[in-house]
Amino acid sequence: MGLWSCSESTNTAGSAEVLRRGLAGEPSSLDPSEAADNFSFQLIQDLYEGLTIESPSGQILPGVASSWAVDPTGTQYTFHLRNSARWSNGKPVRARDFVFAWRRVLDPARGSLVSDDLRLIAGAPEIMAGRLPLSELGVHAPSDDVLVVKLGRPAPYLPQILTHSATFPVFSEPSARSHSPESWVSNGPYTLTRWLPGTSIELGKNPNYWDRENVRIAKVRYEIASDQNSQLARYRAGQIDITDVVPANALPWINSEHPKELVVAPFLATAYFGINLSTPIFASNLQLRKALAMAIDRKRIAAAQGFGQPPAYGFVPPGTWNYSPQNWQWADLSDANRVAEARRLYSEAGYSPAKPISIRLLFNANIAIKQTAVLIAAMWKETLGVETELSEEEYRVFLQSRRDKSKWEVARLGWTADFNDASNFLDTFRENSPNNDSGYTNHTFDALLDEAARTPDPETRRLILEAAERVMLNDYPILPLYFFVSKRLVKPYVQGVRPNPLDRLTSKMLSMSAH
Length: 515
What we know:
Elements (H helix, E strand, L loop, with lengths): L17 E6 L14 H10 L4 E3 L5 E3 L2 E6 L5 E6 L13 H12 L17 H5 L10 E5 L2 E5 L7 H4 L28 E7 L3 E6 L13 E6 L3 H9 L14 H7 L4 E14 L4 H4 L2 H9 L3 H8 L29 H14 L9 E7 L2 H18 L2 E7 L1 H7 L8 E7 L5 H5 L16 H12 L3 H18 L2 E12 L4 E2 L15 E2 L3
Parallel strand pairs: 1-10, 12-13, 12-14
Antiparallel strand pairs: 2-3, 4-5, 5-7, 6-7, 8-9, 9-10, 11-14, 11-15, 16-17
Helix pairs in contact: 8-10, 14-15
């Protein structure tokens, strides 16, 4: 196992090269069945591999599966695993490893936050609801190198879903599973060699990976730096080769000194506030929820981000496959009319500047997120008289607190697409979704999603999904703020950074030249 200093300011090409990647938060888990945050996803994409993989441009390619076929009904897929697929301990990746992993994800006793990604497998919804045993899941391993997946409905985008970490295999021999880096078993391009919490996570090239000849960087070190300005400083000092965040206040320096090192591109993700619908003040007060939504100047919020993020008046982002973005009907109102209507609704809800509502706004520690929270709290105060208590927590603590409805009335949340389809966004608000932080319940909404899931015609399905989003938006369980763009600083000697709709950038895609 190699050890490297965090203060290292130079890098060399060749067998000893180290790619130093900035990471804006501590991963919550490196277990594919448990991880539900983007920081974990970045690491897991390097450590594991699913049945399919993505090219740098987002094209679906064979991964652990060398090939697959689908039956005429579009509901049964047969995957043939490549004989050369190996775990990092040298043992073969078997079809049963996928069966084991997917059952873990869907086990209601585990409460996995990524279980929605497997919802389309036959039996999965009933298993998630506790109405069927795990053994009834529509996935079987008739042999070590054949996996048969039965779907509850046709889903031609299944190969894309299988690139998400929720579908990755897990080594199914319990005695070999461990949380220590020395004995961590994975099947991807890299293996875990060292984890210093709050500091760095180090990976080494997996010598047993089937496609190891196309892994061009020997070692990767993720430098954990939740403070954007700190990550920028380390990049400027030559201690990080590629960042995963860029502070807006750095734009003048970047545009002046290193404009070619900035990579910005839209991707499928939405920043939003979730409203706690279990609290009496919000549970039956639609006027109040709508007033809070209309009091936010989204153009100002988006402009403050600094990188061209579009303001969001709906939840499903532009660019989503086979979908037309939906917006609140008042999205085009003038600022004066929007503010006037927000004040009218606030009064109708029973509040006023003399009798204001008090809100606890929960968010994770991050400079840009805090700035947005402060700005929106000021808008609510100025427009409506709302008193807002800001509650900032370290990321891992925040992940727990967002599940505890006693700690907040409003929480800053975000959703990044697991696969390019509107259902991936809208399914998060199903009544029984583990990602439904607001506690939203609308049986018409759920019924529309079910109808869309049963509809094979893409155009008809699109219209049903759009109708479902309008139902949800009109209930105001959330307050969309803006759509994301990816933004990175990349040293000139790092090649292979190509933005894609899901903002996935695995280390296997990258290479380094001498510098």
